[in-house]
Amino acid sequence: MSQSNPQIIVLGAGIAGLTAATHLNEKGYSVLLLDKGRGVGGRVATRRVKDFPANHGAPCFRLDRPDVVQVWKNALASVAFTPAPLGLDPRAYVCAEGISQLPKALAKGLTVKLETTVTQIERQQDLWRLSTSSGETWEAPKLLITAPLPQAAAFFRTTDKVLEQRILHAADTVRYSPQWTAIVSWETGLGPEIETSYLRLAEGEAMATIHEQVPRKIWVIHASRTWTEQHLEAEATTIVSTLSQELMRHFPEAKPFVMQAHRWRFARTERPLEQSFMDWADRPGLALAGDFCLESSLMGAAQSALTWAMRQ
Ligand SMILES: Cc1cc2nc3c(=O)[nH]c(=O)nc-3n(C[C@H](O)[C@H](O)[C@H](O)COP(=O)(O)OP(=O)(O)OC[C@H]3O[C@@H](n4cnc5c(N)ncnc54)[C@H](O)[C@@H]3O)c2cc1C
């Protein structure tokens, strides 16, 4: 068993997990965040391309839930954010240095263990015991899971079939959609002079839309749902070459260079569960929260996990 187990484990250091952990930490709980990623943020992720921050997950966020804004207060004070440019959600904000500044600021002062992939969860006496791919185990009386529902269900595949089925049922209800995103860098000039961030690359069946230009020379492309589903299992290298060809066909005078593609298997949910979080009287101490509960957004994810945290 690992040393110094916490009072509460939060699985997932995305926006939901970080918001809950911030609040619990302020309340005086010892909280441990576990995440399989190399950094915090989950679907809020930025890569630096030619010195520019390119957001290849969510590009912007709203600040329309007062409880969340209160918990984010210190983090927001240390992050430069401005109203989103034309083409993005008009009620949202963007971070000049990339949206990952927000989860990074939230994580300050929290105990986060990265590159830790949880593989199995079971109940042992009054504790939730998490096993990881590296053979470590962590235990706590309370556990908040913020991984997407299909991934959460898999934790219980061999330890709690009933719970696995309950979570899978919820996953069917919310219906996740996947999304390929790609970061494109233009080799020549400043790139094509386009006024809209939502240019269609293919006629008729939308293949992809240009979602963000940071600045004109770097684009982040979000593939449409239909196109993503058709190419879901393709290798990232195939996506990169397909997108490059499409861009060159569209803008023959400019030289696009598709830098990298990222598959978000559980990008967004179609409809929320419409409950703040999931828990069960016969599984005490355990809850699931995230964007699938209230709204598929940073705010929705944060509010869901925070509502659980406020009740602890
Ligand atoms: C392309 C794209 C564009 C978007 N655009 C917007 C937008 O403009 N505005 C907006 O508000 N929202 C947007 N969203 C949605 C928004 O990003 C999500 O709703 C929100 O980030 C979800 O946060 P979360 O904490 O619930 O989940 P996640 O961010 O998915 O966090 C879950 C965490 O759990 C971790 N995890 C999963 N499995 C394991 C495991 N086995 N072991 C350890 N850790 C694990 C993951 O690494 C991850 O960090 C967008 C999403 C995508 C993909």
List the defining traits of the structure above.
alpha/beta, Polyamine Oxidase, Chain A, domain 2, 17 strands, six-stranded mixed beta sheet, 312 residues, binds flavin-adenine dinucleotide
Explain what the structure shows.
- The longest helix is centred in the C-terminal third of the chain and has 15 residues, at 236-250.
- The chain has 2 domains: 8-47 and 103-174 and 271-310, FAD/NAD(P)-binding domain, CATH 3.50.50.60; 177-269, Polyamine Oxidase, Chain A, domain 2.
- It has helices at 15-26, 66-77, 101-107, 149-154, 161-174, 225-230, 236-250, 298-310; strands spanning 8-11, 31-34, 46-49, 52-55, 81-83, 93-95, 111-113, 118-124, 127-132, 137-140, 142-145, 176-186, 208-213, 218-223, 256-269, 278-279, 286-288.
- Helix 1 runs parallel beside helix 8.
- With 312 residues, the chain is an alpha/beta fold.
- A hairpin with a 2-residue loop joins strand 3 and strand 4.
- The strands form 5 sheets. The protein has a 6-stranded mixed sheet with strand order 7-2-1-11-17-16, with helices on one face. A 4-stranded antiparallel sheet has the order 13-14-12-15. It has a 3-stranded antiparallel sheet with strand order 8-9-10, with no helix packed on it.
- Flavin-adenine dinucleotide (FAD) is lined by residues 11-17, 34-37, 42-44, 57-61, 117-118, 146-148, 151, 179, 181, 222, 264, 267-268, 290-291, 296-298, 301.
